[in-house]
TrEMBL record, chains A, B:
Name under which the protein is recorded: Uncharacterized protein
InterPro entries: Glutathione-S-Trfase_C-like, Glutathione-S-Trfase_C_sf, Glutathione_S-Trfase, Glutathione_S-Trfase_N, GST_omega, GST_Omega/HSP26, Thioredoxin-like_sf
Upper classification of the organism: Eukaryota, Metazoa, Ecdysozoa, Arthropoda, Hexapoda
GO biological process, one term: glutathione metabolic process
Keyword Transmembrane helix found: no
Source organism: Acanthoscelides obtectus (Bean weevil)
Length: 244, 244
């Protein structure tokens, strides 16, 4: 998972060993982490090829016409992309450790919440990548979104959104929750007031103790260091190789 | 389906008859039409409540926190939104006339194409609603997108994307294909050259002959008349009541 990020001019790695899936990924990409979490939760064998997103190898376009990650390469050479499509595919194809609710209605409700979470993602992305300081609109979008998720956890009355263990909704929102502390760097004091989101904070603590989450989690320090390199115009994806 | 579009101040309609789903919709909304197509293809009983989008009734916010359509109301009062989530829900919940491929890989590939079609949708929306004339970038986005779909139909070698009858992918892209001729009003001569998209044009003709499509299809004249009212700042959703 912490292999070097391959750049333009790098040799294309040989195909994965038979029976293994191959994930084209990036260690700091939250969408890639979604797929990693699903693969790990379902205990599906895979290997990872990390891609340098600021200087992509040409051959990534043979896997994905847009050269985007995450891209999942199958046994037969077929490639899938879009994190939520890959996640749904894996859950349908591999029956062990099901992540989506069995009931179509509950599944649809969870998918609506994943969709709603996109508003938080968009705002976080804008704040972390482009804008130096959080504005009032961003504040509102994030706190409105988090309030929805806080209430929903209360309404469900379970440890995780999916019950007594994390499921698809938990994993689809996790990568951004893992990075939430970074917002403090750019946000105002009121933004992530823990007392407003007690249940979410408890959920977040529980998630960090899950074996699946532990496999890919990074401390905020790492996320911040990466973000600083990104904002300085020279994203450094590989510093983690020397530090971990 | 052609009932009047209800506005602010209008009385909330009584719940649907038992066993019927209720679709909050708009006769000219392509996303709503997606759900209509799925309901009709699967022969699921439903009724329609049309919403005036430029002057929404307050009670629509009880059904959907964003007041958006399409919103599907279930027997038990639960409401679902987001057209593709509703479509997937209906296909999972109601087993008759399945629309998605059974094979998870084929289903994922179809979902990637639906996702790719969003680029065409975004461009069409921008062109039809805001910008008077198509620019070169828009040209390219649309012709690149259509070329993908033209080639895909050739690769599959079937009458419809889903085989010998239309399936989820066919229905998810149809509402914008139904409206494609409108682009000529705003586009340049080269945009929709039929000879570039022979297979797509054949597919489109076949789609217009499908009973499911016939139930909701409108002539380009209607779409143009609606669009003109929209662009003039006074969207008229109800002229169709007097003309059909």
């Amino acid at each position: 998972m912490n292999s070097p990020h391959l750049s333009r001019g790098s040799k294309q790695p040989p195909p994965p060993k038979s029976g293994k899936l191959r994930l084209y990924s990036n260690r700091f990409c939250p969408y890639s982490q979604r797929v990693v979490l699903v693969l790990d939760a379902k205990k599906i064998p895979y290997d990872v090829v990390n891609i340098n997103l600021s200087n992509k190898p040409d051959w990534i376009y043979d896997k994905n016409p847009y050269g985007k990650i995450p891209t999942l390469e199958l046994d037969n050479g077929d490639c899938l992309y879009e994190s939520s499509i890959i996640a749904d595919y894996l859950d349908e194809k591999y029956h062990q450790h099901p992540l989506h609710a069995k009931d179509p209605l509950q599944k649809a409700k969870d998918k609506i919440l994943i969709e709603q979470f996109n508003r938080i993602i968009t705002t976080m992305y804008r704040v972390m990548m482009n804008v130096g300081r959080i504005g009032l609109d961003d504040d509102e979008a994030i706190s409105e979104g988090l309030t929805t998720f806080e209430k929903e956890l209360g309404r469900r009355g379970t440890q995780f959104y999916s019950g007594n263990k994390p499921g698809m909704l938990d994993f689809m929102i996790w990568p951004w929750c893992e990075r939430a502390d970074i917002l403090k760097l750019f946000g105002n004091q009121h933004l992530l007031k823990r007392e407003k989101y007690k249940k979410l904070m408890e959920w977040r603590r529980r998630m960090t103790e899950e074996p699946t989450v532990k496999k890919s989690i990074l401390d905020s320090d790492y996320h911040i260091k990466y973000l600083q390199s990104y904002r300085a115009g020279m994203p450094d994806y590989d510093f983690i190789l020397n530090s971990k």
